[in-house]
Structure prediction request, 390 residues.
Amino acid sequence: MKQDVRLGRVGGIAVGANWSVAVILVMIAWLLGASVLPGSSPHQPVVLYWMVAVAGAVLFLASLLAHELSHAMVARRNRVNVRSITLWMLGGVAELEGEPPDAAADLRIALAGPAASLAAAGIFLGAAELLNMAGAAGVAVAAAQWLAVMNGLLAAFNMLPGAPLDGGRVLRALLWRHFRDRRRAEAAAARAGQFLGAGVAAAGVFELLAWGSLGGLWLMLIGWFLISAASTEQAAATAASALADVRVADIMTTDPDLAPGWSTVQGFIDTITIHSRQDAFPVVDFTGRLTGLVVVDQLIRIRPNDRTQLRLDQVALAVPPPYRATPEDPAASLLTRRPLGDEVVAVVLANGRVAGIVTVTDLRRAMRRIKLTPAGVRATTPGPLAGTPN
Prediction:
């Protein structure tokens, strides 16, 4: 999920919002200001309704963020890195790097979000009672009650048993524990998500046709999202199963062209880039140690006048630990990573030196070749699946 607006960092985790979050913010404010608050506390100034409505919408988004932060914090405690949290029209997404180490950790991470929403529901319900006892304006009490109900419904909806909802993660964890096979559990949770999405969409169609309610369109949108996300997860589970016995060494581009960090951008373009079949280059220092990554599209965006002044180590992208692999790592572990520079999913190191890179193209090539092997037999040497310099 793309972050169009960066909101900062919480506990080292990048937090942002997709442009579509503005849609839900406006919808919630409109619902509160035009319907819920006037209905619960009539004959109040219109300005008051809208002030409380906007505050309520912002608090609801804050509760969504708390939901995702709970997932993220529990994930980190279970040795799963978290890349970012993004709020969007249908909720939030905590982007995890890697997989939970076991079914128990998977279950804890999945339950953290609904637990946070239930806690938020309790907090808002308590706030409503305190506001009422203190004689606060009825609109404030009504807004707090609405937030309590919505967080309770959010927790309940998220516990429906189908990916990508938290209930689907719970189902995956329980099936993982039962079958002792994560990939089988993932596929089952994804199929459940597809059926769930179809059911939600069908309910939306029925509501729209039977009662002419525009709420049916919202259910149809949610159903479509569930089907789409579950299908994506099923495809990822299938890919992971196909790569189950494949090593990084079997699919990587071996001995890639390297970028000397001390070289100017223009010098590197003239001597290596225009002659290489690669689109991404590990950047190394004088000792051969990896210091970053440059991609062709990135170099194109540098102004020609600056290319003769800037060194590669000044423009290189950082390569965080999750993007550093060894030849013996499982190739399936690379599937969950967002490509660096839209190109590289891992820089492969052996004895502290760059031994290869794994690009999106390498992964696709490996998947195509595995499909040509009826039994999905893994390569025992780099030959059948290995990449060559792109």
Summary: The domain at 248-371 is CATH 3.10.580.10 (CBS-domain). The two ends are 28 Å apart (CA to CA). Residues 46-77 form the longest helix (32 residues). The first strand starts at residue 5 and ends at 10.
